[in-house]
Amino acid sequence: MIRIEMMEWEEMSMDIVLSRILKYLNGCLDNDHMYKVGLFVVHHYVEMEDYSLDKMLQVGHFTKAEVLDFCQHLGFSTYEEFQDELIADYMLRVSQIRARMLGISSEQLLEQLDSSYSKEELVKELEQICELIFKNKRVILIGALYPMSIAVEFQTDFITFGKEVIQYHHFIDDFQFQKDDVVIFVSATGRTLHDYLKESANQNISDAQIVLMTQNIKYKKKNDLGANYVIQVPGRFDGIQFNYQIMMMFDILRIRYYQKYYI
Length: 263
What we know:
Layout: H1 2-13, H2 17-26, H3 33-43, H4 53-60, H5 64-73, H6 79-101, H7 106-110, H8 119-135, E1 138-143, H9 145-150, H10 152-160, E2 164-167, E3 181-186, H11 191-199, E4 209-214, H12 218-221, E5 229-232, H13 239-262
Parallel strand pairs: 1-2, 1-3, 3-4, 4-5
Helix pairs in contact: 1-6, 2-3, 3-5, 8-13, 10-13
């Protein structure tokens, strides 16, 4: 019975407005008004009930045509229809998360990890990452397509928790990292972080708190990449296994954050 209910929740969640917005934002190629309106909604997601169309135009510096174009692309004929659906979906998502978290513990997932170092140490590190996210305003995800696809549930839940979580895109020339940003960089080898740090130097990436999730034990022993935290994902050096381990890491972060900072 519980399994059937959970499947029903999952089927309902597939069509929530936030999921559709994230699907667009994460795959976007242009920094146009559609992208900017979508970012605004993600940034103000838990407050959207308070944003009339006029207030959104004023605060976001959008034109009415731009906002309505965004709404119509999502299948809504008016902003009010979009807003009502967004609020209803937020309540649904909160209920869904609550139902999913009943009777679940991060320890169950930790037992499934192929630990290559102390689980106690790993738990402590994940607790630090949760606290880091709690104390800062924005989370920025950087990585290859598959790990970023795995991170979408993490992204959706944390936005529901009130945190702005976005994926980094190279095409946004005026993007700036901030001191209250947490950058979660996912790289199996860890080598690409060095290139990103050089490429993004003019975007002040060094101001942000950087978390590297890698399978390369080298950077656990000697962190010379500039990351503030290094999570060495347990297991053999294998692309398929790495993705499964990353998925569990994101799930553990969701569970521990919910239980400590949200409820």
